Amino acid sequence: MRTQSAAQQDSPLAVTPPIQPRMPWRVASVEALPAFRLRVRFIDGTEGTVDLAGLIHSPHAGVFTALDDPSVFARVFVEHGAVTWPGEIDLAPDSMYAAIKKFGEWVVQ
After folding, report:
1. In this predicted model, what pLDDT tens digit does every residue of 54-109 receive, in sequence order?
2. How far is Cα 55 from Cα 64, in angstroms, rounded to an integer?
C-alpha cells in the first residue's frame, strides 16, 4: 500500500512542469502615453515603455508619419498580439519584447 507522500509525488501536479507561454512576446495590453510613448504589457507579465517620438519625427518615418497627430497615436490597440493602429500600422512585438525585457524600454528611432 502506498503512503500519502508517495501518492502526492506521483500526482500530475507534481510531475508536470509549469506552463510557459510559447510566445511570451505577444502583447496583452497597450496604453498611449504623452510624447508619443506607449505602456505595453506582454502575456508573460513583462511590462515596459516604447518611445516612438524619434521614429515619428524622423525623415525616414514612412507609414509612421501618420502617427504624428496625437489623436491618431492615441487610437492604438492590440490585434493578434501586436501593437496596432488604424491603417494597418503595427510594431514588431518580438523586437519590442526583447528590448523591454533587457532595458525596460524600447526606443525606436
Report:
1. 999 999 999 999 999 999 999 999 999 999 999 999 999 999 999 999 999 999 99
2. 7
- Structural domain contains residue 4: no
Residue 41: inside a domain: yes
Main-chain dihedrals φ then ψ at residue 33, nearest 5 degrees: -115, 165
| Whole-number Å distance between alpha carbons of 17 and 108 | 37
CATH number for the domain spanning 94: value is 3.30.2020.10
**Counted domains in the chain:** 1
Global pTM value: 0.78
Question: Which residue is associated with the grid cell 502526492?
Answer: 8
Range of the domain at 100: 24-107
In contact, 39 and 31? CB cutoff 8 Å: yes
